[in-house]
Amino acid sequence: MLRLMLSRLYTAGAYLAAAMMVLLVLLVLTQIVARNVGVLVETTEISGFSLAAITFLSLAYTLKQGDHIRVSLLIQGLGPVKRRLIELWCTGVALGIIAMLVVHTGVMVYESWSFQEVSPGLMAIPVWIPQLGMLIGVTLLAIALLDEFVLIASGKRPSYAVSSEEEVAELLEEAGVEDEPVVRPATMPFTRGEAV
């Protein structure tokens, strides 16, 4: 039940990010059309705020899908116990950093709201509104990291860990290759001393 609820929460963040991406596309198209008609439409601020929201709202979903860039070269050769301990340590450190970011972002949003701070552009948007997208995104990421920490601590495989075999199979499937290609050793058509 909790797993389903968390999965829906991460997916909701991804849908919000997708909605912001659609908004961004519509704003850019509006600006292009308006410029060709001779009307000046100011969408730069909202476009920038949308881009920030897209980035932060999609972080948790991306982590859970295993799509964040991960350097696992150092832990590939380790045994399962050492690997789990390192994964646990790294996830714990990331959780601590993101938890601090949640707190500081929450304070920033509250201060922007309490001081009624507005953006400096033509539209004068209350700054706490776009900052709220960042707060929601980093909060979702903190929840996802806590979820991963609990998974690793309980001895389960983290959902973000994609094995190299799975990654190769996925890439082959995307490329339309049904079976793995046969790799034959290269033969040398010449003997030593001959020109190529």
Automatic annotation (TrEMBL):
Keywords: Cell inner membrane, Cell membrane, Membrane, Transmembrane, Transmembrane helix, Transport. GO terms for cellular component: plasma membrane. One of its GO terms (biological process) is C4-dicarboxylate transport. Part of the tripartite ATP-independent periplasmic (TRAP) transport system. PANTHER family: 2,3-DIKETO-L-GULONATE TRAP TRANSPORTER SMALL PERMEASE PROTEIN YIAM (PTHR35011), TRAP TRANSPORTER SMALL PERMEASE PROTEIN (PTHR35011:SF10). Belongs to the TRAP transporter small permease family. The complex comprises the extracytoplasmic solute receptor protein and the two transmembrane proteins. This is TRAP transporter small permease protein. It comes from Candidatus Paenalcaligenes intestinipullorum.
